[in-house]
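Weekly sync, protein design subgroup
Attendees: M.S., D.O., the rotation student, P.L. (late)

Item 1: inverse folding check
M.S. brought a backbone from last month's batch and wanted to see whether the design step gives back something sensible before we order anything. D.O. pointed out we never logged the input encoding, so this time it goes straight into the notes. Structure tokens as presented (441 positions):
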């Protein structure tokens, strides 16, 4: 889970502070020494850590904090504010060319996630009602062109290619021409990376940039490489100039050093973060929401946005009605799981629920579990799904054989279903008693 280890450490330090009640200057200094260690262990740039701790210390050891009724809370509030400041105050959206085609040029090292992110961004832009075109200029990495075509097709976004025998500058130019002739208003150029920064790559990127004059040059870096990601960002920015950074694989980055340092070191905003391999796993970067996640306070706003994006309101209302009347079937169970799946990977969703990340930190959350349950339900007949009471041992055996799971797994699912139904009945009884209209209102 993103930031998991840093978040755990900070929460423990703050728990100690809150327990103390009254705080002395020494208490705050001791706690901040621990915060400093935690940040360094999270691979945050050491200069950034030094400045951060200094600003918190200056603000947190004043009378108004130490003598307040809740000094522990005040210190946390200051840490939160300083973290937000470090990561850039507010969200930076993509900007568009007002008259004519907008070109976004994607740059970064090989394996950082450039191709995947180009596609994710095109999907995002398409949802806003624009007509993106992906242009395949990565002529060096084997299969990069094919990969872009595959992901483009999944999103129903057109992909312009000329194979790997042409100069990338010419491909990019022809791509823009194609966009003009085909009504595409945003062009996303997937350029070639290299395993390491080298002069050839930079030369090629400078040439493409000078000839296309993109609206934005977006640098894709892998969060899991920690400080290396920050160094890469510094170098790209110096050599070719970037407008924004996209931090990928934050879902697997338990430390978080790059996310916290990039802005401060390069003075360029993080615009998006990649939270998984799926094409929907891209989130706009909001410093205040990220700080809240780091401090274990969840991120309810992103959760709501995700739900709004992926859950059909009509279906949600119908589900609510069924749940209230305790009449939901295995088909409903399946539908609900599919809706949740659309929201992204389970561990990142759980991390957004305030307090849940810490509570579930030792629980192994396996996204595959959802697929297993899905397979069992799909192996049932329509009649069985609608009326689970008919599930006798021989039917269960057939279902288990059909989906390659054990009878024990089938029994476990039926039991879970029965329990949820029972709970729903009790719950709806309580709600009716109180005269409440709906459970989500
Ligand atoms: P490129 O060489 O920079 O074009 O990299 P790719 O787009 O091919 O990505 C390299 C690998 O990283 C692929 O396996 C992607 O699925 C994976 N990847 C990209 N973004 C993310 C992300 O945000 N989270 C995770 N977990 N994997 C990602």
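Designed sequence read out in the meeting:
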């Amino acid at each position: 889970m993103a930031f998991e280890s840093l978040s755990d450490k900070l929460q423990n330090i703050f728990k100690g502070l809150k327990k103390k009640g009254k705080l002395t200057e020494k208490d705050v200094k001791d706690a901040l020494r621990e915060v400093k260690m935690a940040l360094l262990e999270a691979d945050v740039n050491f200069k950034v850590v030094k400045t951060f701790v200094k600003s918190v210390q200056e603000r947190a050891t004043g009378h108004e904090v130490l003598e307040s009724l809740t000094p522990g809370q005040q210190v946390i509030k200051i840490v939160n504010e300083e973290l937000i400041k470090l990561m850039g105050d507010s969200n930076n959206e993509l900007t568009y060319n007002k008259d004519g085609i907008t070109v976004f040029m994607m740059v970064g090292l090989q394996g950082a996630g450039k191709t995947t992110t180009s596609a994710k961004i095109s999907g995002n832009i398409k949802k806003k009602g624009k007509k993106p075109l992906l242009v395949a200029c990565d002529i060096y990495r084997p299969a990069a062109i094919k990969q872009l075509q595959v992901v483009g097709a999944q999103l129903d976004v057109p992909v312009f290619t000329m194979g790997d025998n042409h100069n990338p500058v010419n491909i990019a130019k022809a791509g823009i021409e194609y966009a003009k002739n085909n009504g595409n208003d945003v062009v996303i150029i997937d350029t070639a990376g290299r395993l390491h920064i080298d002069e050839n790559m930079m030369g090629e990127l400078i040439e493409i940039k000078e000839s296309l004059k993109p609206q934005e040059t977006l640098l894709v870096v892998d969060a899991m490489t920690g400080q290396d990601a920050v160094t890469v960002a510094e170098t790209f920015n110096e050599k070719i100039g970037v407008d924004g950074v996209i931090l990928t694989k934050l879902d697997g980055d338990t430390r978080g050093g790059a996310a916290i340092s990039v802005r401060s070191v390069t003075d360029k905003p993080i615009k998006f973060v990649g939270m998984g391999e799926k094409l929907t796993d891209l989130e706009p970067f909001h410093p205040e929401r990220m700080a809240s996640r780091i401090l274990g306070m969840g991120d309810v706003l992103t959760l709501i946005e995700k739900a709004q994006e992926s859950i059909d309101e009509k279906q949600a209302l119908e589900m609510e009605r069924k749940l209230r009347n305790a009449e939901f079937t295995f088909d409903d169970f399946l539908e609900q799981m599919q809706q949740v799946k659309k929201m992204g990977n389970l561990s990142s969703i759980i991390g957004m629920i305030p307090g849940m990340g810490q509570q579930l930190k030792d629980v192994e959350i396996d996204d595959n579990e959802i697929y297993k349950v899905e397979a069992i339900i799909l192996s049932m007949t329509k009649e069985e799904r609608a009326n689970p009471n008919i599930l006798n041992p021989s039917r269960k055996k057939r279902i288990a054989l059909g989906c390659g799971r054990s009878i024990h797994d089938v029994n476990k699912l039926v039991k879970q279903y029965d329990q949820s139904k029972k709970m729903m009945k009790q719950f709806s009884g309580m709600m009716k008693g109180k005269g409440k209209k709906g459970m989500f209102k």
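Discussion: The beta strands are 102-107, 132-136, 159-160, 186-190, 216-222, 244-248, 270-274, 282-284. Residues 106 and 218 are 5 Å apart (CA to CA).
Action: P.L. to compare against the previous round before Friday.
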